[in-house]
Write a structure and sequence with these properties.
4 helices; mainly alpha; about 85% helix; single chain
Length: about 90
Amino acid sequence: MQRDEVVAALRQAKKDRQEISRLQARLAAFEKAWRGLTREEQAILYHTVVDHRKGNVEWLCGELGIEPATVYRRRNKALMKLGERL
């Protein structure tokens, strides 16, 4: 590696470390906000947003004993709550 390449690599490493620090802070903030949700809110968000697959809403309805409209209302409320904490 030539001198200029080493200098460029060092500068890039510094930028990469800064980006990693920024992402770690964002992740920590998200995890704290996520922990502030109830288990039900977490499950609803997980199954309707993160791992949204056909049949998840129906499955949630069966698990929670609620109607699909209620799942969506609770999802929206949980999204708002999560957003306020971020």
